[in-house]
From TrEMBL, chains A, B:
This protein's name: selenide, water dikinase
Function: Synthesizes selenophosphate from selenide and ATP.
Pfam families per the UniProt record, alphabetical: AIRS (PF00586), AIRS_C (PF02769)
Example GO BP: selenocysteine biosynthetic process
Catalysed conversion reaction: hydrogenselenide + ATP + H2O = selenophosphate + AMP + phosphate + 2 H(+)
NCBIfam families: selD
Native organism: Labrus bergylta
Record-listed E.C. numbers: 2.7.9.3
Molecular function GO terms recorded: ATP binding; selenide, water dikinase activity
Biased composition (Polar residues): 331-347
Domain PurM-like C-terminal stretches: 138-312
All copies of domain PurM-like N-terminal, residue ranges: 12-117
Keywords assigned by UniProt, alphabetized: ATP-binding, Kinase, Nucleotide-binding, Selenium, Transferase
Length: 347, 347
């Protein structure tokens, strides 16, 4: 969430950073709420929590002092469904918060036509605990820590029951593959960006943001616009959930996935790293994949572009290299084809 | 807002209080969001902000380090109405935040069938900046800082256009009086409880809460239940917006106003004060009425009951004294009949 309604500090950043009256400390906080997009209430709760915390992680903050939960129960659900669904969603949210080393101690619940789930994450930091997202320099390398294509996967999954939609894409993907991709997207969205946040410090990241509603290019543009130096972000590679690029193409670029503007939910971090650190960052992300952190083979990170001198904008090159990211556990995932091999463009 | 979804510290309190990793400081925060209840979008924004901040004020906290705004725009509004209404609501929220000495630096906006407005208030405090709401002792006096009856006033105002509803109450109130009461309720709900929060320190308040959705008795019960000592709250007097008790009676106690369970929005603080301080607290509240703080004659405060030894519950005596609080600016308001004259019950 760029701090949308904000003025002053928060604007354009994922969080607002408020200098406190007490010894050099800052209050960093963010809020986010939206509507369910996966069918599993427990996973939806995890995704909502991961999405809220992601704004802190994008600033290299690995700790969170408190979370509040924002919920609305749908007036259109009967009592039985409410009692089945809402506790699971709350539990998923709490479990993800616990995985992030924090807890939910407050919140507000209302009745609404639609279900809403979201929250607030707050932390009080010393200056060395967060990385202001404005330090990119020419020569930096851009890294992305989750594959793109979550929106396409979620929609394709809904289309399994919509023949005229399904007919558009059935030539490029099987129902089985759609289900796999949907599962993969769900786990990816539910994965905390906390590991990446920690590694941002270890490898001296210069700036980062998280990729959500505006898509990779939208958030890359926001990040570029905030830089102190006159830089431009040039994106050469697009790591995308397997087959999602083909689906996007098959329905006439409905999603603009390859154009970089397909919305993501709880996407990865886009991180600007010193050139000599990027490969190490990626391999450490990969080696920590499949840990308690919850990142499977789809975790890890990919070098996607470079920082040049420029006018504080981001662009994707013509014909970017598509890196197909296979579902975790699949044959392909166990080969090494999602390693951060620098593309020709970078060598 | 009792921290509804909370566990641990926050529960039952208006805010959650999180001990921080840094030198004895605590993060105190609260969130609240709901649906518009008055027609004026600017005033609705002020009311929403006053309602969020009220949870901090109830702990004697007068400063707020940051606010986030939570908004939803109704999908049912046309573009023109959205552009007229939402900026006014945001402006009202921001203006009230500024009056509270804080500012809004972040938030989230979504599209929803219904308009939602609310926010998050956060502050990092030293221990002496807040008053834990658990220190009431037998002999304390209960003070209320805003009159009751906001829900009745808002509903009566809607009934002006609903003949069969209006016919039920037209014998006890004129349309003019309903409009006056509605205005009065609106200003009362938009008034910050910040003055009261400051005076809680000056007069050594032992505990407080703010009166909102559960009504006076509901919140009095919540507060009584949290007390360290075995105390009971006994309420003798009910300060109520003029004529609202009559309306509530006329429609068969639809609201249970005199029973103490009529919902309030952004109501006053219910404060437990040492007996010898209560009258001074009230007269200082009254003398600060009509200041920049925004409290007119309806501001001030009323002694409404006492704290006895008991089983941590609250009750309203049989046949409580109704204190009719006239609209500001009215003849009656300029007389002294809303002064905190202790009732016979207290002498």
């Amino acid at each position: 969430t760029p701090a949308g309604t904000g003025s002053g500090p928060g604007v354009g950043m994922d969080c607002c950073v408020i200098p406190l009256r007490h010894g050099g400390l800052s209050l960093v906080q963010t809020t986010d709420f939206f509507y369910p997009l996966v069918e599993d209430p427990y996973m939806m709760g995890r995704i909502a929590c991961a999405n809220v915390l992601s704004d802190l992680y994008a600033m290299g903050i690995t700790e969170c002092d408190n979370m509040l939960m924002l919920l609305s129960v749908s007036q259109k659900m009967n009592e039985k469904d409410r009692e089945r669904v809402m506790p699971l969603m709350i539990r998923g949210f709490r479990d993800a918060a616990e995985e992030g080393g924090t807890s939910v101690t407050g919140g507000q619940t209302v009745i609404n036509p639609w279900i809403i789930v979201g929250g607030v994450a707050s932390v009080v930091c010393q200056p060395n605990e967060f990385i202001m997202p404005d330090g990119a320099v020419p020569g930096d390398v851009l890294v992305l820590t989750k594959p793109l294509g979550t929106q396409v996967a979620v929609n394709a999954h809904q289309w399994l029951d919509q023949p005229e939609r399904w007919n558009k894409i059935k030539l490029v993907i099987t129902k089985e593959e759609v289900k796999e991709a949907y599962q993969e997207a769900m786990f990816s969205m539910a994965t905390l960006n906390r590991t990446a946040a920690g590694l941002m410090h270890k490898f001296q990241a210069h700036a980062a943001t998280d990729v959500t509603g505006f898509g990779l290019l939208g958030h890359a543009n926001n990040l570029a616009a905030q830089q102190r130096n006159e830089v431009a972000f040039v994106i050469h590679n697009l790591p995308i959930l397997a087959k999602m690029a083909a689906i996007s193409k098959a329905c006439g670029n409905l999603f603009n996935l390859v154009q970089g503007t397909s919305a993501e939910t709880s996407g990865g971090l886009l991180v600007c790293l010193p050139r000599e650190q990027a490969a190490k960052f990626c391999s450490e992300m990969k080696s920590q994949s499949g840990n308690a952190g919850g990142q499977g083979p789809a975790g890890g990170a990919w070098i996607i572009g470079i920082v040049e001198k420029g006018d504080r904008r981001a662009r994707i090159i013509d014909k970017p290299r598509i890196i197909e990211v296979p579902p975790r556990g699949s044959q392909a995932a166990n080969q090494d084809n999602n390693s951060p091999a620098p593309s020709p463009n970078l060598s």
